[in-house]
Amino acid sequence: MARRHPGVSTWTMHGAGRVGVARTDVADHVEEWDVFLVMAPFVFDEVAFSAGDLVAYVRKENGNDMGIATQFRHLRRLP
Q: In Å, how far from its chain's centre is CA 14?
């Protein structure tokens, strides 16, 4: 099964909270995320964030070297 669907992406840590994603199927791919741990619960725009959740923002990608957040991810641990 793995031979029919080889992994095309890997990730590495680039310092405190910065995750880089490398891809073998996209030439010159650039993707870096800043990841933060929610320490205290809060609500933003009717979305509830709980302590222990992760909040991630794309800070660097092809065409974006300015560090502008272009994507957002809210990750919550499964029960």
A: 12
